[in-house]
Inverse folding.
């Protein structure tokens, strides 16, 4: 006897319609139907048996629609983002909702949910609200993750072309093959003319490299989940960590070759750096869970990944881009799965921070703003700029009297 499943929608086509409204096809040019999709899900919620992924998609999408500084205060926008994001994560990993007790990080690992989502949920719940930039980025990444986790499987008519599974990996490998040749060409030979400037050949190669980076950014924007696929292929297939390297071999040449390209990609698509650092942290912490500390310490690949991650987190070359990274996530991963390289990484980060306390996402972002001065970073002071439009400004002197006291 077949199992009876009760759904809040009348027909499966209703769910597919909601999916197309939440995730319109790239060629779609009609009106924005996301508000209607949110209203539909709200009605389904009243009927019961609504999958958490559907509800979370509606909450996150509604938070994006609420993001209008001309109608809502900045604090209201941040609170709406935080509430939707926290409910999305809690519904997936709360140990009181599902079976045997496990840590939230363990449940996130089982589901394939980025562990940085759990850390950001903890920060939004127990500390200060994260910045608007962090919340916007995390919400967009959450919707991308929900597509792969739930929506992609509700029907056979997925419309994202070669954006998933093996086809996406093959596309990434093809592009990396072309980009890799350009990366090595930028450092082969002297490349300097008699006048001390760049040679014509090297300028042409650098222009080709910028064009290749733009192509990679285009793939990342069009293909949901492509950031993690690209980061995984670059790490595991010998692009960033050469396959034949031995323990103790320097990565200076490799880093100098790939750094410019990685920064170009990050400038065009900020989520790539988040996915790259998360993948590096996961490679150090979770891929060697069953290995002994001694074997992990002597693993050339783990050493290479550690060198790259330490470089991104500490090098001045990446200073302007580190505001997109959750350092607290990296530290949380180091604490969750301790081995030689995660312990070394945690010690390095804490020493750099000047204390053993875990810096939050907001603290990390704030420190980058202070160090950057008036460098014109996008979205660095968007909260304050918006408040000034409504008549708010910074006080010249601090008044310690309680509110309401004249």
């Amino acid at each position: 006897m077949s199992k009876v499943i009760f759904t809040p929608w009348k027909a499966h086509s209703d769910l597919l319609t909601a999916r197309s409204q939440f995730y319109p096809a790239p060629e779609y040019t009609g009106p924005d139907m996301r508000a209607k999709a949110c209203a539909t899900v709200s009605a389904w919620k009243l009927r019961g048996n609504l999958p958490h992924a559907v509800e979370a998609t509606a909450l996150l999408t509604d938070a994006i629609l609420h993001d209008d500084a001309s109608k809502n205060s900045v604090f209201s926008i941040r609170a709406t983002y935080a509430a939707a994001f926290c409910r999305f994560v809690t519904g997936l990993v709360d140990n009181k909702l599902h079976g045997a007790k496990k840590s939230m990080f363990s449940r996130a690992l089982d589901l394939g949910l980025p562990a940085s989502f759990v850390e950001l949920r903890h920060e939004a719940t127990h500390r200060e609200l994260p910045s608007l930039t962090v919340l916007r980025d995390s919400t967009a990444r959450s919707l991308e993750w929900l597509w792969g986790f739930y929506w992609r499987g509700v029907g056979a008519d997925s419309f994202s072309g070669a954006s998933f599974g093996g086809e996406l990996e093959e596309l990434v490998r093809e592009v990396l093959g072309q980009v890799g040749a350009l990366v090595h060409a930028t450092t082969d030979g002297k490349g300097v003319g008699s006048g001390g400037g760049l040679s014509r050949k090297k300028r042409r190669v650098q222009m080709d490299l910028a064009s290749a980076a733009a192509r990679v950014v285009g793939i990342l924007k069009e293909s949901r989940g492509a950031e993690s696929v690209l980061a995984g292929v670059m790490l595991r297939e010998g692009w960033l960590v050469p396959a034949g390297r031995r323990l103790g071999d320097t990565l200076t040449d490799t880093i100098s070759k790939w750094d410019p390209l990685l920064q170009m990609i990050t400038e065009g698509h900020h989520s790539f750096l988040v996915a790259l650092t998360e993948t590096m942290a996961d490679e150090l912490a979770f891929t060697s869970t069953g290995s002994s500390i001694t074997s992990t310490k002597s693993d050339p690949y783990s050493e290479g990944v550690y060198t790259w991650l330490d470089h991104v987190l500490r090098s001045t070359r990446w200073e302007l881009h580190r505001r997109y990274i959750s350092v607290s996530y990296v530290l949380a991963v180091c604490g969750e799965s301790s081995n030689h390289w995660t312990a070394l990484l945690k010690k390095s980060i804490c020493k750099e921070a000047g204390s053993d306390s875990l810096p939050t996402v907001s603290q990390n972002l704030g420190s980058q703003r202070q160090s950057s001065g008036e460098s014109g970073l996008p979205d660095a002071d968007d909260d304050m700029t918006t408040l000034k439009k409504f008549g708010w400004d910074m006080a010249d002197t601090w008044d310690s009297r309680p509110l309401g006291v004249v």
Remarks:
- Residues 12-153 form one domain.
- Residues 156-164, 189-196, 355-380 have pLDDT under 50 and may be disordered.
- The two ends are 75 Å apart (CA to CA).
- The chain has two domains: 12-153, 164-189+199-353.
